[in-house]
Design goal:
single chain, mainly alpha
């Protein structure tokens, strides 16, 4: 099946795999998630396992925590 793919098809498939694979990272940076750099590292290192990808997606979709401003008065 894959032996009939040309270089254009391989590039298109690779592009879509990268987009889907890095989706949790993109979501985290777009939403300005609290731990977006941790999500990037987790996604790059463990995203290929499937479980790591879902964990990164879960972290990316978690609601942001509100940080209270400390008043000094």
């Amino acid at each position: 099946m894959f032996s009939q793919l040309g270089p254009t098809e391989v590039l298109i498939i690779t592009f879509f795999c990268l987009v889907i694979g890095l989706l949790p990272t993109w979501i985290a940076f777009k939403r300005k998630a609290d731990h977006r750099w941790m999500i990037l590292v987790l996604n790059v290192l463990l995203g290929g396992t499937g479980i790591g990808w879902f964990i990164a997606l879960w972290f990316a979709l978690r609601p942001r925590t509100e940080r209270r401003a400390v008043e000094t008065a």
